[in-house]
Amino acid sequence: MLNISSYYLAKVLATVGITDRRKQNQINLGLTCWNLVTGVTGAFLTKKLNRRTQYMIAFVGMTAVFACWTGASADYAMTKNTQAAGAVVGMIFVYYMFYTIMHPLTYVYITEVFPFVHRAKGVALTQLFSRGGSSFNQ
Amino acid sequence: MLMRWTSDFDNPNGALLGLISAAFSIGAVIAIPVVPYVNDRFGRKHSITLGSAILLVGVVVQTASINIAMFLVARILLGMGIPFCINGASQLIAELTYPRHTAVLNGLFNESWYVGAIIAAGVTLGTFSMPNDWAWRIPSLLQIVPSLLQVTFIWFIPESPRWLVSRDRSEEAFDILVEYHGEGDRDSALVAAEFAEIQATVRAEMEGSKRRWVELVQTPGNRRRTLIAACVGMFSQWSGNGLVS
After folding, report:
1. Residue range B175-223, pLDDT digits in tens
2. A49: Cα separation from own chain's centroid
3. Shortest CA distance to B78 belongs to which of B91, B65, B66?
């Protein structure tokens, strides 16, 4: 709530020379809006794709884009080429497109996997591991 | 982090800031073991009611914070309220909505997170240059709006038919199915089929289970489900979303 631009995004952008706070905030807000658009699309994809296919597309896509992102970031680190910096920003947006193909599935999948008697506990377990995962990030 | 907030709280150091950001997770971990009990005993709707009530208290304490201890307690309360709301809401959507739309609606439910994030970013952008403590108190106070809407309108939405059947309230469950899935037609074939399926499965599941935690690891099928629950939770966080959250 207290972050305007996320702490981590600011650091990633700083590694490719984008240190201006205003610019960072603009990219952050743009990225959040982009996530909403691709996430809503992902929610409707559940009509067309089965769950595992949708997860596979998301994770394969994220892995591939992350490799390109790392490459472009390394290029910027060696050459200070502004085109490489632009590519990194573009890559972040494509990466999140794949992330939000998976993001809508969390509660869809978990409420389908558990039968009624254990459903509340199943969702609670997901919440616990999700909280544990995000604490690890910090 | 907001400059104004930092100075109002005497520039807390790194360890204290870490504790404040962890407080949200600490609250969640305290609440999560109780959440399924509340859901199964009091219903999906009132899990949301309880969660929203805790959030209301959390928001008031956070907005009124005069020292770091108050702020910390508020963050723990906010962390405690959220799992009740999410657990109840995701199950209410799964069990109440028209079957053909359930997946899309539960997907949109999770994506609504970004709507909140955009509003929060906009509000903070508007207030952060304010010269007084309202720079952070206004964004804090505005968090009350979604919870107020929840506790006001929760009374107007139907409960999960499956949960009602599990509490021996089958007649109410049937009425809800008629109104929301059968467009008021008590002889609807869809409603009859759904009602029969719900009664048969809920009864069979309740007879074969004491609904204890240990059952989640007692059969191969449940072990697999538990593994999926853990992976879905973990990998939704370990895939780079820390950048925007």
Report:
1. 999 999 999 999 999 999 999 999 999 999 999 898 999 999 999 999 9
2. 20
3. B65
Domain segments of chain B as ranges: 1-156
User: Does the distance separating the beta carbons of B234 and A132 come in below 8 Å?
Assistant: yes
- Kindly tell me the burial class for residue B192, based on how many C-beta atoms sit within 10 Å of its own C-beta (0-12, 13-18, 19 or more): middle
Fold (topology level) of B1-156:
Growth Hormone; Chain: A; (1.20.1250)
CB contact under 8 A, A114 and B225: yes
Contacts of A102 (CB under 8 A, 6+ apart): A42, A54, A55, A58, A59, A62, B236, B239
Provide the chain A residues 102-121 that lie in CB contact (below 8 A) with chain B. Answer: 102-121
Residues 39-98 of A with CB under 8 A from B: 39-40, 42-44, 46-47, 59, 62, 66, 92, 95-96
| d(CA A21, nearest CA chain B) in Å | 12
Characterise A6 by phi-psi region: left (phi > 0), alpha (psi -120 to 50), beta (else): beta
B215 contacts in A (CB within 8 Å)?
118
Structural tokens at position B4: 């104004």
User: Helical H runs in B97-188?
Assistant: 102-127, 134-142, 144-153, 161-166, 170-181
> How many other C-beta atoms lie within 10 A of the C-beta of residue A15?
13
Q: Are B51 and B59 in contact (CB under 8 A)?
A: no
Tell me which DSSP letter residue A49 carries: S
ipTM of the complex: 0.91
What pTM, to 2 d.p., does this model score? 0.91
Q: Which of residues 10-39 of A touch B (CB under 8 A)?
A: 12, 25, 28-29, 31-33, 35-36, 39
Cβ-based neighbours of B72, under 8 Å, separated by 6 or more = B19, B20, B23
